[in-house]
Amino acid sequence: MPRVLLFPVDNTEDSQRSWDWMINNFYRDGDEVHLLNVISRLSFAATLGVPAVDFTPQINREAYEAAVRKAEEFIVKRFLARLPQQIQTTPIVHIIKSEVDTNSVGHVICMKAEELKAACILMGSHNKGPVAEFFMGSVSQYVSHHSKVPVVIVKQP
User: Taking the domains of the chain in order of start, what are their residue ranges?
Assistant: First the structure.
């Protein structure tokens, strides 16, 4: 039975560096890798050009589909295209729309890990700084405190 690894991703250099670390230091032949991108309420609201408090997913189906396409594009560019040729796995990609805040994005990640029966969650930390982290929260912090499976957090230099 393959080891299931869940790797939450976003469109940042930090996430990409964490992916590279995971592939070079943690991945083993035969692992089943799942990439997860959560399209949060705030990022979707920005795509629609409306405040997050006014967010309703039915406003514009085309804008929602554009947000999903954007996620697909960065996942291919930042993650799938960077897989070394000797790796024989094809990661499974999950894109989930979430109408929630940072803590709930972490909740979505934890729930997906349970659903997949993941051996662990591997994710990067972001260098937001203490003030931004205080106000915006930390997804990796939420996941590390609430996950029922082991969590590996790749610290950024």
Answer: 4-154
